Amino acid sequence: MSVSDRLHASQTRRTDAVPAVRHRSRSPQGPLGAWQTQAGNRAVASAIRGGAGTAVQRAPGTAQLPATTSSAADDLRITPVTETGGTGGGTGREEGATSERQAAVDEVAAQKANVAAASLARAGAEADVWKSSGEVVESRRKAAAARGEAERLTGEAESAERGRTTSLEAAHHHTEAAGRASGDRRAAEGRARTHRETEEGKRSAANEARAREQEFTRQAEAAERERGLAAARVAEFTEKAEEARKKQQAAEARVAELTRQAEEAGREQKAAEAAAKAKAGAEDQAVEQAARAEAEAEAEGEVAKSVAKWAEQAARALRQAGDAEREARERGEEATGADASRSEAEREAEDWAETRKTAQEQAEKARDLAALRDKEADDAAKERGEAEHEAAEHQKTAAEALKQAEKARGDAETYARTATELRQQAESARALELEQAGIAAGAQRSAAGAARTRAARGTEQTGATAALAAAKAAKEAERKAADEKAAEAAKKSAEEAGKKSAAEAGGKSTAQTAGRTDEAGPADASGTGAAGTSSLRKGADHVVKGAERAVKGVGHGAKKVAAKVKPWVDGPDTAILRGSAPPGGVLRAEASKTGDTGRLHGTVLQQNAENPVNLISDATGAVNDVAALKDAAGKRHESGPASHAHRKNWVGKPLGLTTNSLMTVNDVVKITDNSIRTAKDMAGVAALGDAGGALTMTFSTLIAARDVKVLKDTRARRKELKEHFKGVVAKRDRKLQDVLDELGTAGDRLAQNSITLASAPAGADAEALRAVEEERARIEGLRQELMGHLAAARDYAVDKKKRKLRHRATNLGGNVARTAAGSLAIAAAAGAVSGGIAPAVAGGATAAALGGLAVKKAVKKGRKRYLSVREPDRYARTTLPQEGTPDPEAPAMSKDGQGGRKRDAWKEAFMVTHSIKQGKRQLRAQEIYALAAGPAVPASKNVPDDVRRETRAFLKSLKCGPEKHNQTEPEWLASLNDPEKQTEWEEAIAKQLASV
């Protein structure tokens, strides 16, 4: 892309929201912008004139132009420089060409400084826009919050005042309630006293009634006793009367019985007499019964006795009946007397019963009266208790009311204080609102001013960039013109020198030469003489420089050969050291032990083939170290990104040269030993074995010591790198340049929205403020995307550190094992150790420690080279390259269109001399630089200042800081802001990523 195309692209990226200042026909251009535009136009015009033979020269700050302070526009005026020498004066032309070249260089430097200054001013203005717009948003937010707080506090104050009024009313109400409760308490206490007196009177009357009840009960009980006695007498007399009646009845019954018996005896007597008469009338029939006559006679006698007996009994019964009648009459008299006594006793009992009844009735009345008086006393006591309880309740109510009144008054005071404080806070909030509104207004003006400054500085940067491009074109034209003039002058000088040589060879005299000189004139003569002397001096210089170039050519050739050979021989060298040499050593030791000359001869032939490869690898390594050390010796005092490698080589390459030299000497010793074994003695020379072991121990110890230091430094560096961008997650969703371009567009919109917000009338700026907030939110998201890219670079560097720790630890173990192998080799050469111990230790430990690592690294590098061709877009650049950098050559695509051709990819995979031009490491380096570089660099134009500062801190942790580049902080920052150092910076960062 040409310069004009880039300028056009930079203008077309500007959105309509923030038009360039030169597009505003009604707005006058700033003085600096106008000067830069005029300077650019003059530079282009002078560049065009430079092609026709005129030169460009910077006005201020050079010795070729007259100093002027007439106006600011004249300070940047580019004026042509006329040749001061005559047409025939070569020296004058050379001095004029030198002046013109110097003027062009000065002009380029001046325009470059203008671009840097304008870019820094634009970046600063952009940072001010971001900062001021943030202050606007924050102040407006604080003002809105303060306004809301003031409204809230005012509402709370009003609520507190209402609470105070309510509390005062409540206090008044509670005070009145307390007064009413106190009156009610006093009334209740009076009623309680009345009821207490009533209760006491009723209790006394009840006690009197109970006393009367007890008296009447006693009388009733006495009457009852008397009635009981009377009743007992009644019962006694009744019993006696009953007994008399019973005896009378018994006597009467006896009389009746005896009468009956007498009557029965009379009837028996009569019956007996009748029977005797019947028997006597039957004597006529006794003839037949003559036999029974005596028996019947005897029976008649018995009957007579019986009749007599019954008659006696009847008489006795009659007598007894008479006695019984008399006794009955006596008992009847006794019963009549008992009945009279009983009646008298009954009447007495009735009297006592009546008396008892009367006493009981009186006692019942007294008991009822006592119960009534007790009830009345209980009622009075109840009423008294209720009155006392009511009095207590009223007292409690009064106390509670007084307490509530006091609390309400306290609440009222609290509400009053709260309302006062809230009013004060509301006033403070309103003051804060006004303050934040003022800050917001000032920030709006600052943001708008910064936005306008940003636009003006952007225009100035564009003009300065155009002027710089024009100055570079003029410089290139001057260089070409100067080269043409120098070639013409050299040609003339050569012709004059040839003529002079021919004149001297033809025997021309000095006088003739002088004559010609006189004819030419004094001025021409002096010019020709000076030109001749200069030509002779230049010829001698060319001879010396030619010799120097020849010597340098030899060294350069050796360096070039070593650089080419080393990568190719590293593979076989590693295969020998890690693969064939260890088992070969074991076989040699075993053959020496057993005296197997055939196998021993085979191992000698094996080492004759292996040692030259080792020698070439170590020797080319030593040559490369010498070349790097020589290059570093001349450049170690330089400054800039590339200078770090020279100082690093100056410090580190001596150790590498020492180890490679020792290894080379060791290879020579082994070759010598094998030559002796091959020619004369299969046992070899013990001294050479000792020397080989000592050399192995020496360079292995040196490498191990270096590994220990590297391990320590790497662990510390890894810890430091992990602290950067802490908490940010690595995320790369799209190309970094797309994010930066969108960030620039968003920045333009934010600047325009800031201007719109500042010019919006008060109260009608809500939409403009919302636009600013939305744009800031969009920019914040883009800034987070930038941090995600930085976090990805951090993770890459930390992972590289982790792998380096692992590899260095493995190397350290291998070198420790190789040191042990060297010591055992010395012992074996002296005969102290026999068998395959030393070769086994040396070969087995070293091969196990380093063989796998070497194979892994080789495969990994081959895969990277393969992918660089097969998938060229996998790690393609995501940022703008340095201006003038040619586009990378695209590989031939495969037929399926999926990437580069496989055969080309496989071919590249085995090209060990080829470095990867664009891989993951280079991509990370380019992105880190794009985020760390200054605003004058096109790729870093839209990077926010804070992101740029964080990235630069990360650069320092990557050993790309000013102390590593032999620069001061301002020089280091200036180099980061130099677009012409972009490629140098990216290469330096990539080297540091490779070494982390």
Describe this structure as you would to a colleague.
The chain has 18 helices and 2 strands. The chain has helices at residues 3-12, 31-51, 72-75, 90-281, 293-505, 510-520, 522-594, 597-635, 643-679, 686-722, 736-759, 766-829, 837-870, 902-909, 920-932, 945-957, 969-976, 982-995; strands at 57-58, 78-79. It is elongated. The model is unreliable at 1-90, 508-532 and 832-836 (pLDDT under 50).
Count of strand segments? 2
Secondary-structure element series: HHEHEHHHHHHHHHHHHHHH
Given helix and strand content, the structural type is mainly alpha
Number of helices: 18
Major sheet attributes: 2 strands, antiparallel
Shape: elongated
Radius of gyration: 73 Å
| Strand order in the largest sheet | 1-2
Distance between the termini: 35 Å
- Poorly predicted runs of 5 or more residues: 1-90, 508-532, 832-836
Roughly what percent helix? over 70%
Q: Would you tell me the overall average pLDDT?
A: 74
Strand content: under 5%
